[in-house]
């Protein structure tokens, strides 16, 4: 793991780079902050997203913007932060068909490791470098530039784009060949989802028995049940400031996205006959939340699901 560079990224850029060094595709809760950090460090950036208000915000910060993915053909490096495997596949195919002249693709989406590996092979066949670099650290980490990047791909490709990653994150971990970064991310999110359900279950139980959630959370955070879902992202409203639970579960990592990642994780585990009984049970819980139209809420809203509070629907 390497700490974030203290040097401005402009020190690393050569005069041979194309008009736009980086094309950033996918400006959700995470991607918008990651792109903003690149801009703040002097990167020439072109941005694309279907959400026009986010694109306009980046334009106000100095980004060049486009309403067509094909307009990214002049970008030397492409960064994608997209919802699913088909989105990434389609974007790669579109840019290759349009004659993308760049060198390196960084995919920070969370997708199927097998698909990620095949995309790497396709890009390499075109003389391009590709790394899968999914992230951990949440919306706060994206805004602060302290994300952890789990990287799969050739060491030489990683080194060529390390300065960009160092602007967006504080930890860069080379996991192995293409696809291994995605494997690491899915394992991480599998554990995180299970921990969140367990944390929510315990807090709900304590509350139901009359124990102040703040007191219980304080005990948990200094005891053997301590975990990120409790001490940094607590799902009980009012226990922590600045987390989705204290903002009506808005602005975090959506339950529908967690369900997608659990599906990828359990599918990948099944392919190699790795048992995931808790992962399967957690996936069922998030599936039920999706059916109750809670998919847009942060995944910590599982606490409300356990309480039977599911908006206009009865849990």
From TrEMBL:
GO terms for molecular function: 3-hydroxyisobutyrate dehydrogenase activity; NAD binding; NADP binding. GO terms for biological process: L-valine catabolic process. Pathway: Amino-acid degradation; L-valine degradation. Residues 22-176 form the 6-phosphogluconate dehydrogenase NADP-binding domain. It catalyses: 3-hydroxy-2-methylpropanoate + NAD(+) = 2-methyl-3-oxopropanoate + NADH + H(+). Keywords: Branched-chain amino acid catabolism, NAD, Oxidoreductase. Residues 179-305 form the 3-hydroxyisobutyrate dehydrogenase-like NAD-binding domain. The keyword Oxidoreductase applies. The active site is at residue 185. Belongs to the HIBADH-related family. 3-hydroxyisobutyrate dehydrogenase subfamily. This is 3-hydroxyisobutyrate dehydrogenase. It comes from Triparma strigata.
